[in-house]
Amino acid sequence: MTRRRTTLLTGCTALALALGTTACGGSGPVTAGGGDKALGGQTVTVAGVWSGTEQENFQKVLDAFTEKTGAKTSFVSTGDNVSTVVGSKIEGGNAPDVVMVPQVGVLKQFAGKGWLEPLSETARKSVDTHFADVWKTYGTVDGSLYGLYFKAAHKSTVWYSPGALTQAGVEPPKTYDEMLEAGRTVSDSGLAAFSVAGQDGWTLTDWFENVYLSQAGPEKYDALAAHELKWTDPSVVRALTTLGKLFKDEQLIEGGQKGALNTDFPGSVEKVFGPKPEAGMVYEGDFVAGVAKDQFGREIGEDADFFPFPAVGGGEAPVVSGGDAAVVLKDGKNAKAGMALLEYLATPEAAAVWAEAGGFLSPNKNLDPAAYGDDVSRATAKSLVGAGDSVRFDMSDQAPAAFGGTKGTGEWKLLQDFLRDPSDPEETAAQLEAAAAKAYKG
């Protein structure tokens, strides 16, 4: 495939031409409106996993881009299997211009296949200005920056019913041990402590990652994510042991292990915030708020709130994130306008559009917190951005899909098996290592 760097908008002059801004001169945040419609008559095709409300809100961002540049946009929802859908479109000669990639592993896969254009100079400067270095690291493959992280998830949040904690007479805890003790008090008051979505293996990987990052620290987390550290390492066994104490405590988990294995993620939120609450707390990312609000009518900050996933075993409180990175495909029909879209997505202005719509967190540190529509969103965003370079990307999303992202196999299945019987952490670690070695070799 021929590289088409000469067709891309590069430099501050190009961004000003396309977006009608002065974003590159350090003269303050990009302002809304304006634009000289420099890309009028062109169309940018964007592919991503989003559907429903998420797609509608992202369309508002695309519409703002159109208003500035004159470029029309067309969004194609890929479903969860982005890699397969995009690959088939490339083979069929119908590649999108921009893809919103939800996993670091997929971004690396795309780059390895030679599908991606490196970001333009303007986009790179915006990343340097508006994002912590860690987001640049996760968008870089073999020294080239390909991915711009536009939407992030904060996966170190424990959501709770304020009424349940008040009834039990407990405060949001500061340490993992305090959290378990608070859970036992909640259980004594009549509700189960935690609703655990064990039917969805990905939620169990998130539990493990938070415990592991806090206990073992970021260096070992990075090494394990890259499989430079084996899953049989004592640090893994220690984290599994810690997690196993929760999994086997019938007082803490709603429905016990069997009940958890029959509960999917939406169901786990319903058991805390639905019409007939069965538990006081549910661990998962900031997106819990969207389910609690949209499906069960909860007022975020009033009858649904969160506390940060607490520090484990004397470590630092973890901040695990996920996110969607925008990339430009070489085989798209309009890489020039596609790169202009990424240059726009790198601005605080673009992030503000979705932040105002709701259901969104931005890793852009220069986004005005006032753009978020509620105090809880502002608090989660502050926690994510405030963590700076200590943020770590979801480990399972960095792994080959065969290990970290496939239902019924790999890490998902083995942690479900561990939830079912957490009596032998060493054996589970050995099974995880065997599965990881096979997947990373492949």
From TrEMBL:
The keyword DNA-binding does not apply. Keywords: Signal, Transport. Pfam families: SBP_bac_1. Residues 1-32 form the signal peptide. Residues 428-442 have a biased composition (Low complexity). InterPro entries: Bact_solute-bd_prot1, SBP. The keyword Signal applies. Residues 423-442 are annotated as: Disordered. Gene3D superfamilies: Periplasmic binding protein-like II (3.40.190.10). Belongs to the bacterial solute-binding protein 1 family. PANTHER family: ARABINOSE-BINDING PROTEIN-RELATED, OSMOPROTECTIVE COMPOUNDS-BINDING PROTEIN GGTB. This is Sugar ABC transporter substrate-binding protein. It comes from Streptomyces ambofaciens.
